[in-house]
Hints:
This protein is globular. The protein has helices spanning 18-35, 40-45, 63-76; strands at residues 47-55, 58-61, 82-84, 88-91, 94-101, 106-114, 117-126. It is an alpha+beta fold. The protein has a single domain, classed as Roll (Nuclear Transport Factor 2, Chain: A).
Amino acid sequence: xxxADVMEPKSRKAADSEHAEHNLALFxxxxxxxxxxxxxxxxxxxxxxxxxxxxxxxETENVDNHVAWAQAFLKENxxxxxxxxxxxxxxxxxxxxxxxxxxxxxxxxxARWEDGQVxxxxxxxxxxxx
Length: 130
């Protein structure tokens, strides 16, 4: 096989469209600005009023209940911070992102977006054997 036969690796994007990339950028704001800085106004802006969130063995319906859940979680885990998003995938209205926390744990979030807000969100705690 000569040099002409060597295939160049294709560049891979995290999102399948500009729309999906925009949703991933909003997800970055949700975690790194709203969650990490405890900016509940921004947290509310990035979730639809009637958002449904499932995870950790429970489900919340509407943004007020989701904010209450998040605040209760952080009351029990006050040092909790998201440090990185090692995996970021956007497809249409959906994002799938892993979040690496400052305690070494990892969570995956799958979210559906409409008009710049999360309308469905599924949270998964990943067990890594540690």
